[in-house]
Amino acid sequence: MASGHDAQVAGEKIEALLDELRSHAGPQVAETAEELVSCLVELYGAGLAEIVKIVGSDPHGAGPRLLDGLVADPLVESLLLVHDLHPLDIGARAQRAVDQVLPQFGSHPGQVSYLGIDDQGVIRLRMEAAGHGCGSAPDAVRAALADAVTGATPDAAGVDVEVVEAPAELPLLQIGRRPAGLQGAR
Q1: Which stretch of 67-76, 83-92, 116-125 has the lowest confidence by average pLDDT?
Q2: Measuring CA to CA, which residue among 122, 133, 121, 134 is closest to residue 161?
Q3: Crossing angle for the helix pair 27-56 and 4-24, to the nearest 10 degrees
Q4: Which of 10, 18, 174, 177 sits a CA distance of 20 to 30 A from 123?
C-alpha cells in the first residue's frame, strides 16, 4: 500500500469481509474475526509508537526532520492519527491545512484566523472575505477550508468557518487648494 487511498480501499475491504463473516458464518466467527483485526491493529500501533519514540529521540537532531517527512505522507499520517501518535496537536494541524489551502485562491480569500476548538470539539475558523473579486469566492474558499481542515483533523467533531465581510475601504479623498477662480467665492 502506497497511499492514503490504498489504505481506504483496504479498510473498506476489511469491513466487507467482516460483514460477509457476520452474514454467512454467524456471530461467533464474526466476533473472533473482529477481535483478530483489533489485535493486529494494536500490534502495529505498538510498533509504530516505538518507531516514533526512536525517531523522536535521535541524538543527532534528525528526529524532527524525519517526523516531518513521516507526517507529510498521507498514509503514515493517517496511521499516526489512528494511534494518537501525531507529533502536531489538533490546532497546529488545522493551521497547517489552512496555510496549504489559501495560496490556491490568490487574493480572494482575505484573512483566515484559527479561533480554537469549542467545548464540543468543533474547530472554529473566521474568514474575513476580501472586499473585491467574485461574489462566489467566499463559498468556494469556505468549502475548501472545511474539507482541508476536516481531512487534517479527523479527531475533531467538525469544522465551522464563519465568514465575515471585510470593512469597506473608505475612498481616498484628495484635499488640495481651490482652483484660482474659486478662492474668493463661497
Answers
A1: 67-76
A2: 122
A3: 160
A4: 10
- SS3 label, residue 51: helix
Confidence band for 179, pLDDT divided at 50, 70 and 90: low
pTM for the model? 0.65
Spatial strand order of the sheet with 158-165 comes to 111-117, 122-129, 158-165
Q: What is the grid cell recorded at 52? A: 516514533
What's the CA gap between 81 and 85, in Å, rounded?
A: 6
6 has a pLDDT exceeding 80: no
Task: Give which of 118, 130, 185, 126 is closest to 158, Cα–Cα.
Answer: 118
Hey, what's the cell of 55? 525517531
Report how far apart, in Å, the C-alpha atoms of 156 and of each of 46, 80, 124, 139 are.
23, 15, 11, 22
Q: Which residue has the higher pLDDT, 157 or 178?
A: 157
- Residue 38 per-residue DSSP state: H
Give the DSSP per-residue string, 107-160: TSS-EEEEEEE-TTSEEEEEEEE-SSS-TTHHHHHHHHHHHHHHHH-TTSSEEE
